[in-house]
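TA notes, week 10

Several of you asked for a full example with nothing omitted. So below is the full record: C-alpha cells for the whole chain, then the designed sequence directly under it. When grading your own attempts, check the secondary structure regions first.
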C-alpha cells in the first residue's frame, strides 16, 4: 500500500518568545488522515509547536507547508481558512452562550461540511446539552464543545493541545472515543499530549520532545514492547 500524501511539513522551525528561544530546528511530516502525537513534559515546546503551525507564534526560522502551500508567518485567521483548526488547551468556550450558540457563532453554512446533526451525532453528550450555557458544562463537556466548535470551521487538520488536561479518567475515555471517530472520518490530527494511554490508543507515531527539540520518534508498538523508551524522556 502506498504511503498517504503529505498534508503537513514542518521544516527546521525555530520559534521565540521575545528573546527566549523555545523551539530549535523542529522538523516532522504528517500524512493525510494520520494521527501524530507530540509528547513530553510541560514546557518542552509541544504547545509552541502547535501555535507555530496555527500562526499564533510564527517561527523566526524554518518553513511550514500545508498541502504544498507555504503558510509560514501567515496570519492565524488565514491559516484557519486554509483548513487547519486549532483547539487550545484552555478551551475558551463562551460561558454565557448555549452549546448551540457556541457552535453557531463560527458556522458558515455555505462553506461548511458540518451540520448540527453531524456534530451531535459525533458528540451525543452535547446534543443533550444544546440549550445549556457553556459556563455550566463540566471540563470534559467544555473540551468536547471546543473541538466541536473548531469542526464547524471545516478543518482538514486538527491541532489538539492537551485535550486530556484536567479531565477525570471516564472523561478521558470518552475523549479518546470521540477523537477516534474523527480519525475514522479521515481528519489529519496532531495531538500534543502527556497521557500515554490516549497517545497509544490514537496515534501511528509519536515525537518525543525535550527542551524544544525532538529527541526520539516512536511507534505505539515500540512503546508497548519497551515502555522505558518513552518513560525515560517523561521522567527527565
Amino acid at each position: 500500500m502506498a504511503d498517504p500524501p503529505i498534508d503537513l511539513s514542518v521544516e527546521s522551525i525555530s520559534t521565540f518568545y521575545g528573546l527566549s528561544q523555545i523551539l530549535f530546528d523542529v522538523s516532522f511530516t504528517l500524512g493525510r488522515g494520520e494521527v501524530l502525537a507530540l509528547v513530553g513534559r510541560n514546557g518542552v515546546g509541544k504547545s509552541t509547536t502547535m501555535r507555530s503551525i496555527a500562526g499564533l507564534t510564527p517561527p523566526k526560522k524554518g518553513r511550514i507547508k500545508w498541502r504544498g502551500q507555504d503558510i509560514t508567518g501567515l496570519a492565524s485567521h488565514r491559516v484557519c481558512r486554509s483548513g487547519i483548526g486549532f483547539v487550545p488547551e484552555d478551551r475558551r468556550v463562551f460561558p454565557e452562550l448555549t452549546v448551540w450558540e457556541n457552535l453557531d457563532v463560527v458556522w458558515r453554512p455555505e462553506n461548511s461540511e458540518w451540520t448540527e446533526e453531524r456534530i451531535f451525532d459525533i458528540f451525543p453528550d452535547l446534543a443533550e446539552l444544546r440549550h445549556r450555557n457553556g459556563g455550566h458544562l463540566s471540563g470534559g463537556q467544555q473540551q468536547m464543545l471546543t473541538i466541536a466548535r473548531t469542526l464547524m470551521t471545516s478543518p482538514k487538520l486538527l491541532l489538539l493541545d492537551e485535550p486530556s488536561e484536567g479531565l477525570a479518567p471516564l472523561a478521558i475515555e470518552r475523549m479518546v472515543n470521540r477523537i477516534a471517530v474523527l480519525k475514522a472520518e479521515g481528519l489529519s490530527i496532531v495531538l500534543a499530549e502527556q497521557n500515554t494511554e490516549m497517545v497509544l490508543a490514537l496515534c501511528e507515531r509519536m515525537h518525543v520532545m525535550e527542551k524544544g527539540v525532538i529527541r526520539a520518534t516512536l511507534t505505539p508498538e515500540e512503546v508497548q514492547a519497551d515502555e522505558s523508551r518513552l518513560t525515560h524522556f517523561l521522567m527527565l
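The longest strand covers residues 6-14. Use that as a sanity check on your answer.
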